[in-house]
Amino acid sequence: MNGSSDEAGAEAPAAGTGPGHFGLIWAVKPSFVSYVLRMSDGKVYITGGVKVSKDNELLFPFDEEAAENPSGTDLDAPGATFSFRGNVAFQAHFGMLDVRINRPQLHLRGADGELTVMDPESAEGGRLTLVTFSATAPRVEDGVQYWTADDVRLTAAGVPLFGDVYPADEPFAPLMIAAPRR
Q1: pLDDT number for residue 10
Q2: For the chain, how far is it from start to end, CA to CA, in angstroms?
Q3: Furthest-apart CA pair in the chain: how many Å?
Q4: Which of 61, 63, 75, 144 has a Cα-to-Cα distance from 104 of 20 to 30 A?
Q5: From CA 29, how far away is CA 45, in angstroms rounded?
């Protein structure tokens, strides 16, 4: 992602290829990211350990200390919540466009789930349900457990975060979790 980084914006190897490369992998919405990067003042800021792959997918690392995720990477747990570290800010139009995806969490309910982020409008640190999705059963390859969601849709609550440009139910990029098999 040709933007800015408050940290060393090292490119991440393919998801799940080694320690430190496990977590939430998500390209958000490629057309949106391209739009931001085409703007003369468009920037993408990444902090908190987020890495970017050569395919412009963001890798948010697991937050192993999060109380919501005491078992770490137990993807088979029904009704599980998975917390991730890191922050990404997309900015353009002299600050008029300011989309922040901070400390995402995935909440699973069987095959359905939702991704929440810190709500930028909440003074109390509330969370905003950004997208919903349908998930596939986890698969294991070379000691890495992968879980994917292809039908990712923007929620009505997430519409204002993107400046009311995209309607509720707008398709977003597929997401994936890569975790070591325990």
Answers
A1: 40
A2: 32
A3: 46
A4: 144
A5: 16
Report DSSP state, residue 3: S
Beta-strand runs (E) in 43-154: 43-47, 51-53, 58-61, 81-83, 87-92, 97-102, 105-109, 112-118, 127-135, 139-141, 144-154
User: Chain-wide mean pLDDT for the chain?
Assistant: 84
Tell me how many degrees the CA angle 54-114-153 measures, rounded to the nearest 5: 70
For 56-69, what is each residue's pLDDT tens digit?
Answer: 899 999 987 875 65
Which of the 8 DSSP states describes residue 94? G
| Measured distance CA(7)–CA(9) in Å, rounded | 6
Judge whether 25 and 53 are in contact, CB under 8 Å: yes
Write the CB contacts of 142 (distance below 8 Å, at least 6 apart in sequence).
none
**b/e code 124-136 from CB counts within 10 Å (16+ = b):** eeebbbbbbbebe
pLDDT tens digits along 23-58: 999 999 999 999 999 999 999 999 999 999 888 899
